[in-house]
Design brief:
heterodimer; A: about 375 residues; 2 domains; about 15% strand; globular; B: alpha/beta; Rossmann fold; disordered N terminus
Chain lengths: ~375, ~220
């Protein structure tokens, strides 16, 4: 299976920073690309910019047809004309994260100073959520935007929102971290590790140098995606969508069913999720980004006191969680809300009832969407945006 | 003997029904323009919006009912889901000029602790509560020997969220025990009309359906 070419051949619109960036790990990237998309128009005062931060396997194609998959943008229902993040009103920016595989510098990019050119692969230095945010800050500066009206993101995107608010409080008027936490929990790290081990155990992994043989560790990466996908859903959602329904077999008959075929619809669904994923995502990027999430810990970064991270902040926060999300449960958002209370910050905090699990932030959730629009509207009034 | 009132068992148990238009003005009048205000049990945020629109206050809220929180945030108000009994401890000392508790004191688990927290995180506290000393409450209990049911106290004893009812006298007594100064107070009927007897605590305790009190730390 050779999906590597599709990933490398597509040209994503990007900006190149020839000065590069020194990463948290100490390694200096000699040059750095940040691929991004924008929607709507920047106003004259440059005050209506909204940065969207994408999640682990998301990308910058928020509100348009994806160039590989041909599917609608991943937040099509949230970002667009007349949508909660209204592109008639706001200038929306989304950048592919550092370490990603959609045009920003990552393990698939050409390594610094190597001839003949070769990708970084597993030698790509470890990046942090903070590195991702600093790369985005360089992009924002490059676009001539001094202060973002809002930074919005779910899951790993929410981690970036928090990091933005902590590192550049004056550059963020409103922050909306959705379905996220101030650190990655032991359980979440554990699930990531299962995914990584699945990739490592694929015979096509070749110690991470799979591109040399025009291979991808497709089976391992697909299993990683399947495991992760379960954590994005909830038991209620799986029951509602699939129940115990059998795949392609007449009710009550077991004749056509093999012991290890696609017995249940839920199995077929997961296999489909796994196999489509490997064509659009690079395994080394997956490893790099899952590691960045695992290392995220704003509490430890601030001496065990999350309040210290937000001391004196003027940013208006809106934390959102979903009732059935067991990957980033409400308790994590509540802990952030309380830390913000201790810092006397302006914070709204809502838990949206949903049976869709962690994925709820990506799906049709009218209460969430109305609330997002309302919060942004209130903030726009306070920011003097007309 | 009167039949037990019909109760809609499916209705969520709420704090006493809020006549926000009444509290809005009575409480709003006690708050200086431009101040920082925290409204505990803010419901859909009507008071917060009132204080922001008419007095230019930086007003925020805590509310325990998630549907109300969603409603308030959807209207652009800074409201978070939280419980007065638990979440006030997470605010720093002196974070607000005023902390408001509107018709909620009688429904919290630990009213004394909530008051303490209010006057820790705010320089002043505005507390409104329904008066259990009102003559109709007294009369019903005396005449029928049963728990009173009035427009203000409108839930049967077995399902009321109002677990700590008090009279105006009781409240003043607690304030003096705790060392809180009463800066301003008034008693009013359900429609919010201030009565002429409002200067006399004894009459207010008999005829006032609700009280609004502005406290400060002594």
């Amino acid at each position: 299976m050779d999906a590597t070419d599709t990933l490398s051949l597509t040209e994503h619109s990007h900006v190149t920073f020839p000065q590069g960036m020194v990463l948290d790990c100490g390694v200096a990237l000699r040059r750095m690309d940040v691929a991004f998309r924008t929607y709507g128009a920047l106003n004259e005062a440059r005050s209506n910019a909204v940065l969207i931060c994408h999640a682990l396997t998301g990308d910058q194609y928020v509100a348009e047809t994806h160039p590989f998959t041909g599917k609608p943008g991943w937040w099509d229902q949230v970002v667009g004309p007349g949508r909660p993040v209204d592109t008639n009103r706001f200038f929306v920016i989304c950048a592919n994260v550092l370490g990603g595989c959609m045009g920003s510098t990552g393990p698939r990019s050409a390594r610094d100073n190597v001839t003949p050119p070769a990708p970084w692969g597993t030698d790509f230095p470890p990046v942090t959520i903070r590195d991702m945010v600093r790369a985005q800050k360089m992009l924002i500066d490059d676009l001539g935007i001094g202060r973002l009206f809002a930074v919005i993101g779910g899951s790993m995107g929410g981690m970036q929102v928090l990091q933005w608010a902590v590192d550049f409080p004056d550059a963020v008027f409103a922050a909306i971290p959705v379905a996220t936490a101030a650190y990655h929990s032991a359980q979440n790290i554990a699930f990531h590790e299962v995914g990584r081990q699945a990739v490592f155990s694929d015979p096509d992994w070749y110690e991470g140098r799979y591109w040399e043989r025009a291979k991808i560790p497709a089976r391992g990466l697909a299993v990683a995606r399947m495991v992760a996908h379960i954590t994005y859903l909830s038991e209620q959602a799986l029951t509602r969508k699939f129940g115990r329904r059998l795949q392609g077999a007449a009710k009550g008959s077991s004749a056509a069913i093999g012991m290890f075929g696609d017995m249940f619809e839920v199995e077929s669904y997961l296999r489909h999720q796994g196999s489509t994923f490997v064509h659009r995502f690079d395994a080394n990027s997956y490893l790099t980004i899952t590691r960045a999430m695992d290392f995220f810990d704003l509490v430890t970064d601030h001496g065990g006191d999350l309040t210290a991270a937000f001391q004196g902040t003027k940013t208006r926060f809106c934390l959102v969680s979903f009732t059935s999300d067991w990957l980033f449960p409400t308790a994590g958002s509540r802990a952030i809300a309380r830390a913000l209370n201790r810092a006397a910050a302006n914070v709204s905090f809502v838990e949206i009832p949903s049976d869709k699990g962690h994925d709820a932030f990506l799906l049709e959730e009218p209460d969430f969407h109305r609330m997002l629009a309302g919060f942004l509207g209130g903030c726009a009034e306070h920011a003097g945006l007309t | 003997m009167q039949d037990l009132p019909e109760v809609d068992a499916s209705a969520p148990v709420r704090f006493v029904a809020k006549n926000m238009r009444v509290d809005l003005h009575l409480i709003g009048d006690m708050i200086a323009p431009g101040s920082r205000v925290l409204d505990i049990g803010c419901g859909d945020g009507a008071l917060i919006e009132h204080l922001y629109r008419t007095r230019g206050c930086d007003a925020r809220g805590i509310e325990i009912d998630m549907a109300e929180v969603t409603h308030a945030v959807t209207h652009g108000l800074a409201v978070m889901h939280g419980d007065a009994d638990v979440d006030l401890a997470h605010y720093p000392d002196g974070a607000f000029d005023y902390v408001v508790l509107s018709r909620t004191l009688q429904a919290v688990e630990r009213p004394r602790e909530v008051l303490r927290q209010m006057l820790r995180i705010g320089a002043r506290a505005v507390v409104s509560f329904p008066n259990f000393g009102h003559w109709l409450v007294r009369w019903q209990l005396l005449r029928r020997g049963r728990m009173p049911m009035t427009p203000t106290w409108d839930r049967p004893w077995y399902e009321t969220p109002n677990i700590h009812p008090c009279t105006i006298h009781d409240f003043f007594d607690l304030c003096s025990r705790e060392g809180y100064g009463v800066e301003q107070w008034l008693a009013a009927d359900e429609a919010g009309r201030r009565a002429p007897w409002r200067r006399y605590p004894r009459l207010a305790n008999l005829f006032g359906e609700q009280a609004v009190v502005l406290l400060h730390r002594d």
